[in-house]
Amino acid sequence: VKKLVIFGVGLIGGSLALALKQAQYVTHIVGVGRSHASLDEALALKIIDSAETNFASALQDADLVMIAAPVAQTSEILQKIQPHLAPNTVITDAGSTKSDVLEAAKNVLGNQFSQFVGGHPIAGAEKSGAAAALANLYVGKNVIITPTQETNKEAVEVVRELWKACGANVSAMPADEHDSIFAAVSHLPHLLAFALVDDIASRNNANQLFSFAASGFRDFTRIAGSHPEMWRDISLANKAALLSELASFKEELNTLQQLLETEDANGLFALFERASLARNKWAQSKQ
Amino acid sequence: VKKLVIFGVGLIGGSLALALKQAQYVTHIVGVGRSHASLDEALALKIIDSAETNFASALQDADLVMIAAPVAQTSEILQKIQPHLAPNTVITDAGSTKSDVLEAAKNVLGNQFSQFVGGHPIAGAEKSGAAAALANLYVGKNVIITPTQETNKEAVEVVRELWKACGANVSAMPADEHDSIFAAVSHLPHLLAFALVDDIASRNNANQLFSFAASGFRDFTRIAGSHPEMWRDISLANKAALLSELASFKEELNTLQQLLETEDANGLFALFERASLARNKWAQSKQ
Prior knowledge:
The structure is a homodimer. By secondary structure, chain A is an alpha/beta fold. Chain A has helices at 11-22, 36-44, 55-59, 74-81, 99-109, 153-165, 175-201, 206-212, 215-220, 228-237, 239-261, 265-286, and strands at residues 3-7, 28-32, 50-52, 64-67, 90-93, 116-117, 119-121, 142-145, 169-172. At the A-B interface, helix 7, helix 8, helix 9, helix 10 and helix 11 of A face helix 7, helix 8, helix 9, helix 10 and helix 11 of B.
């Protein structure tokens, strides 16, 4: 890849740039962003080689375009890219939801939709912004790409190789399958953590409750400290799958409630044991 | 304190013993347990000075008795202690629920109930057993004691000073207040984590789901790896408060569901922002 254009040089886009530079996979990286300050920071940190605010010059001779801006901006960015898009330029993204992104890309790009490959790196960190970017953020991490039947096969390979050059494990699957999986293992847990903290924070004795919360609460609610704007956008983008997960979880809570009400010691033990074994087996497999 | 008797020399009882030895607060520590192996281990690690399986000799001349065995055994241990209990021996415990423990103590000890002080150190760790015991486990941690109007004032002070000698911050409150607080900030989060993992583990595509679960899922579900037996006992012991928390949480989930169904972006943002601000403020206060 000679010229890579990254929209949004924060943790995700910045870490990609650093990883690709380290792997000597890209000759020139152009950063495009809404804020001059963050582009200047990315230049100073040598994350990008040049910064652009003009879309036409940014896109000129670009081999690959990565959209790593907040998901709600994807459609707008695609609209600004479209008039300057050469037939051989591949576009991809790093958003946490995929069906909505593919729909936006199809609407905006029309018959150039074949050049778009949806992607989602399963990596994040407590911090955000270019200053938090790490060259090794994607090493050993999963990246999912969501090609469709219309997607150009060479474009898919370009994006797959891009992530492999960062040390990631790349899987391909349909966008709706991706969205179902992440509704279950990521989006629902975030909603539950937000809900628990909001429930406690709204009480008269909130300060007392928080003062006795300890390490279990700390870990359980870590994801409740996430960006409200990002999670509003993810929740709305993945509404259908998330509502389905919420319904399933409420069923599980009803089961637990009944076990408690009837003081079913064996039933409670069995449920806790199934969960505990599954959780510890998972944790071991991740080590 | 000249003679301290500890029932259950695991993480909680063992760490107490190590902390008190380090503070030179106790002259002689006797361990009592169901298993010879764990007593031998505690002796070998110099956590206890002697081991006993006979209750009469263990209790003789004891100033203080700590019950740090699983909560479900508390009533049985009290029954075995009661015939050998001198009028000046103070008894306390380290169980995660307090109303049920006080009720058991009152039933078993009768007019010696004044010698019993309920306690709960808010400390734990991934590991359990004497080998995991740490002299500094309680430094800076909260310990709640739950004296009643019948409790001997000197007994309360003995238990308060015991925990202060370990470096803990000691608060006193009624048992039902304790149980309400921990239903909210500890017991409900455990139930939610167990429920989420059980819900996922029961699906046909559980392996696929687990394979894409990442760091948010890891932290959110850490407490789902807890001991099933311990959490069965805590759930049943604190049933009323826990059912009340479950009802409150389901209301909060219904609110979230409605915000999602109506695509209320501002409402979702407001809820996530309240939670995120409260969670990050809490985390900062704990640093």
